Amino acid sequence: MVHNVAAAGFNDPGDYEAARPSYPPDAVAWFVEHLRLAPGRRIADLAAGTGKLTRLLEPSVGAGLLAVEPVPGMRETFRRLLPHVPLVAGTAEALPFAAASLDAITVAQAWHWFDHDRATAEVARVVRSGGHLGLIWNARDRSESWVDEVWSIMDRVEKHAPWRDHENWRDSAMRAMPGFGELHVGEFRHMQQITPEGVVQRVASVSHVAVLPGPERQAVLGEVRTLLRTHPAVRGQELVEIPYRVDCFWAERV
User: Fold this and answer.
1) How crowded is the C-beta side of 24, counted as CA atoms within 13 Å?
2) Which domains does the chain possess?
């Protein structure tokens, strides 16, 4: 079952596609190397969303790449942007694949929405022995004062968001994943160049903001606009830069 906030908040993914960051080339290359992504292998990008990671993996995988996405609005956008990539509806807890039928599964910006134990069991079921699981997140880097203030606005909205345990999950090197070997960790950095209004869209794309009642949502976005208009680090700028830490993980199916 899809988390109710994700199901509602991501069903109109216009802001998500327009304003969410992509992933840096060095992180993608790390995935390609360690997950052994190559033509002739069968790879599923799980919870693919609008295909932000899928489109970066496609040059390395080719026709063996397919996508899984549970939210109808996300699937519609994915099909428009990547019509040649096979796409199926499905959830991490009930994957529409036969046992040991995949060489790897990738998950971008989504594992925190899953039931960890059930998703781990399903991924272990469908990935063959010697195959791989790869996870990636753009994590919030709060080193810039104005960016920290933007995320502080988000903090008030996202009190119960599943992703908010990400730091503890990362620091403990992930909970046990039966069926998989050692968890390998990589960390990368990149900057997202974006317009101030794009920053507003970035905040609007967060599911916990998207599901707010209209007046509350507009109040949050208005607060972000005011910050961008008045903060000395960014006021008057046509483009700003949001830093991200990119957390990557991979493990081999034993």
Assistant:
1) 20
2) 4-140+161-190+243-252 (3.40.50.150)
